[in-house]
Amino acid sequence: MGPPPSPIPVAVLGATGSVGQRFVELLERHPWFELARVAASAESAGRAYGDAVRWVQDAPLPEHAARLVVEECGPAIDCPLVFSALDASVAGPIERAFADAGRFVVSNAKSHRMDPSVPLLVPEVNPDALDLLEQQEHGALVANPNCTTIGLVLALKPLADLFGVRRVHVVSLQALSGAGLGGPSALEMTDNVIPYIEGEEEKVAAETRKILGNVTVSATCNRVPVVDGHTLCVSVELEREATHDDIVRAWQEFRGAPQELGLPSAPERPTIYLGEPDAPQPRRHRNTGNGMTAVIGRLRPCPLLGWKFVALTHNTLRGAAGGAILGAELALVRSRDNQQQIRPLASWNAERP
Ligand SMILES: NC(=O)c1ccc[n+]([C@@H]2O[C@H](COP(=O)([O-])OP(=O)(O)OC[C@H]3O[C@@H](n4cnc5c(N)ncnc54)[C@H](OP(=O)(O)O)[C@@H]3O)[C@@H](O)[C@H]2O)c1
Question: Which of 125, 202, 155 is nearest to 307 (CA)?
Fold first, then answer.
């Protein structure tokens, strides 16, 4: 499919935060979407984005974004497409209000992930979760899973399709950017590992089941002094026998709807296996596929569950802003192909020549 006739104006809620900044960065060069509005807390509202934000990305702050005035998060922001990077403590009612006002909302917060009518979407893994939108009454609300869940289900999906996945044990080594701008201080994290991330282990287990179905997941989540990139040490029990080569081939050959449709944010390959004995590593491999590819390595037998491996995903790109943008691209294409009526996007399309 070709691009929309003109870029769709989008709003970013929570635009000043760790994930919000990634949205601003990615939308600067997006072929279909145009950053039109930015919103955050009352403390930031009324200031130019460039003054309100404590920019921590390597890429320079885009000039157009720097000049936008930060607004408070209310449906007076009338963009048809809204990306939410709001703090989870406030996201729930704000995102609902935008959806009720007829907007297409893609959320990164935990608030609505387990609602039965909300798609918990990883575009390559469960694109048909978007069918759930038909159960929503006004606009549309789609949730991105937790950043650790995203890496895990990307690595498991090719195995689930071919061999079935019964049980999973995962130990995460999660980057600092995953804790947001107000995360642990340098004093707390230097020379240290924190073996606790509130609510994370429960989220990984429950969200993985919502996405992949009947899988038993035991998760242990740790915060480590890495800037970006969550590393997962995974043991897996498969339902059917598979050789080392079978499993590696499953990852190397895996493609999903975003690749078939040629979506702008789709990496050429959603999963890649590296054969080096010491891969993947966050600093060296997190930007693979523009930060959208899950990089897997160290596949070897596990005496407990059968197989074990290491998977790495970029938490604020694939695990948050990039994944949400890819989800919106998928929804837009489904809407334009009339495969599925997605109200806010369908009406935007209808208004165009
Ligand atoms: N970081 C990750 O890797 C990651 C990955 C997946 C999902 N998530 C989820 O994504 C969301 C954002 O995470 P983050 O790491 O970017 O957090 P963050 O750095 O703490 O940013 C939070 C954002 O929420 C805004 N905010 C706070 N209170 C508000 C209020 N009362 N009204 C309106 N806006 C308010 C902040 O605005 P001010 O600057 O004005 O305070 C800021 O823009 C969270 O729900 C998180 O769980 C994060």
Answer: 155
